[in-house]
Design a protein that fits this description.
alpha/beta, Rossmann fold, 2 domains, 13 helices, globular
Length: 405
């Protein structure tokens, strides 16, 4: 619920693991603060917008659909929760390749809705029109799915994905030898975990998946996003990243005392600054101790220490891993090589590709910054969708055979 105290706005939505802490400037000319969801944080400034109009989208998916669609509920027996989703399938008799879609970090609905876009709806529509069955589902505690997202971790979400895969395998129109997992962002971390643990998995596709630890990802993306954010005072960048790094290292050292570590490190760091630097940091939009406290969640504590390559090295199925060259959240320059080295060690058939001038959502971008996502009319570029279809339908048996000889 939102609350206004003095000149500060506080918004908390537990179901979405979302917090916003902002400060009012002028006569409510703007509210500047930090938006936190699912462990990730970004500066967010709010302005009055009486003439707001819905942005146009050039990939509108509306009924009637040229395929079969049905809403389903399936159980994750391990967690004892029911999850809700939608299956889309070709409407002619046959057995078809099939995939589940796994969302990125933060609570997401089955369409992975964000900033006016519905990437998973677009992906499901494109794949199904090309003869591929798709199951997309609401994250636990979101939409019609039961459970508590706020207490969930990456391993918990992998358990949910595995349950989705098992459910998909029960349908007689699914080719059980061609079932895979498509994961976006954190979903790209989850996909190999599912592949290692669940023998129903026959392939995985990682869209902007990570190849380094959560610690390294958070530090790198924090710097890149701050550089791209026009509201961020670049004079504060070094101190901001230094503080972020110290807090993350402190949490990793003593995860059971995360709150105390955040409080102590923040206080000591600010006390060590010159008066000029301290004043500048305090004036930085969205900068506050409360914003760092919002990182103290079960998900964030596990994500920091999680090494995706440990799972990629154990994968025994074909893999497609792709990134956008302007992705500032999971930059390919940091993640592509570690992924390739891990898959080389696994000894599996794989393909990697970096799409030119695309951001984290696989949109054609200028800077790659988060602020651009909403203003770009395309949700996901068709060439990325075609790449997925090509990989799913490709007969990979010859490549797999050559690796084993």
């Amino acid at each position: 619920m939102p609350s206004l105290k003095a000149d500060s706005l506080f918004i908390t939505l537990d179901m979405m693991a979302m917090k916003y802490v902002g400060k009012v400037y002028g006569s409510i000319d703007s509210i500047s603060g930090i938006y936190t969801q699912g462990g990730g944080s970004m500066p967010l400034t709010l302005f009055p917008k009486p003439d707001y109009k819905q942005l146009e989208r050039n990939q509108k998916i509306t009924p009637p659909y040229p395929y079969f669609t049905t809403d389903v509920v399936f159980k994750n027996d391990e967690a004892n929760i029911d999850l809700a989703g939608t299956i889309t399938a070709p409407d002619t008799l046959g057995k078809y390749p099939a995939v589940i879609l796994v969302t990125g970090s933060g609570p997401q609905d089955r369409n992975e809705s964000l900033m006016g876009h519905k990437p998973f709806l677009v992906i499901a529509d494109w794949l199904t029109r090309n003869g591929i069955v798709v199951l997309r589902y609401d994250d636990r505690g979101v939409g019609k799915s039961k459970g508590n997202f706020k207490t969930g971790t990456t391993m918990d979400f992998a358990s949910d994905a595995s349950a989705a895969l098992n459910h998909l395998a029960t349908y007689n129109f699914v080719d059980k030898e061609k079932i895979g997992v498509i994961g976006h962002s954190e979903g790209g971390v989850i996909a190999p975990i599912v592949a290692v643990k669940n023998p129903n998995t026959r392939f995985i596709i990682n869209l902007a998946g990570t190849g380094v630890s959560g610690r390294d990802i958070i530090i790198e993306q924090s710097e890149l996003l701050a550089k791209a954010d026009t509201s961020f005072n670049k004079a504060n960048l070094k101190n901001y990243i230094d503080l972020m790094t110290r807090i993350i290292e402190g949490i990793l050292a003593k995860p059971d005392l995360a709150a105390k570590q955040i409080d102590s490190i923040f206080t000591n760091f600010m006390a060590s600054l010159t008066p000029e630097d301290k004043e500048s940091m305090n004036k930085q939009e969205g900068f506050s101790k409360q914003a760092f406290f919002a990182l103290n969640t079960p998900w964030f504590l596990q994500f920091l220490a999680l090494e995706p390559t440990e799972w990629l090295e154990k994968v025994k199925v074909p893999v497609l891993a792709v990134w956008g060259s302007k992705d500032l959240q999971v930059p390919p320059v940091q993640n592509k090589v570690p992924v390739e080295k891990a898959l080389d060690k696994a000894g599996v058939y794989y393909e990697t590709f970096v799409f030119d001038s695309m951001n984290h959502l696989f949109q054609k971008a200028v800077t790659g910054g988060i602020a651009e996502y909403a203003s770009i009319p395309t949700t996901i570029e068709p060439e990325v969708l075609e790449k997925m279809v090509e990989f799913i339908k490709k007969d990979k048996s010859l490549e797999i055979k050559s690796l084993r000889e």
